[in-house]
Amino acid sequence: MVSVTGELRSLVRVQDVYEEFGTPVDTAIGQIQIERRLAATYLGTSRRRQGFGAQGAEGVSVRASLP
After folding, report:
1. Which residues is 55 bridged to in the sheet?
2. Measured CA distances, 52 to 39, 40, 47, 58 (Å)
3. What is the pLDDT of residues 10-39, one digit of tens each?
4. What angle do CA 36, 38, 39 make, to 5 degrees?
5. How far out from the chain centre does Cα 33 lie?
6. Cβ neighbours of residue 62 under 8 Å, at least 6 residues apart?
């Protein structure tokens, strides 16, 4: 037989952890946001280094020509 008091204590502990650190869903959403920011920063850094007339892998300019 399971003790109701023991279950309540467990729930209180879990609630305390969630209040301090957030729920697993909050944690997952936070991780996704962090990864998106890191990716945006990484992509922005490489574009700034290369400038608008970026060189492709073969050394060919990928700058768009206007008519």
Report:
1. 61
2. 19, 17, 8, 17
3. 888 888 888 887 888 888 888 999 999 999
4. 65
5. 3
6. 53, 54, 55, 56
DSSP character string of 14-29: HHHHHHHH--HHHHHH
Is pTM beyond 0.70? Reply is no
What is the C-alpha to C-alpha distance for residues 33 and 38, in angstroms, rounded to an integer? 9
Integer Cα distance of 43 and 14 in angstroms:
39
Residues 30 and 22 sit within 8 Å (Cβ to Cβ): yes
Both tokens assigned to 3: 């003790």
Q: Residue type for 38, please?
A: L
- For residue 25, how many C-alpha atoms fall within 13 Å in the half-sphere facing its CB? 0
Half-sphere exposure of 15 (CA within 13 A, CB side): 6
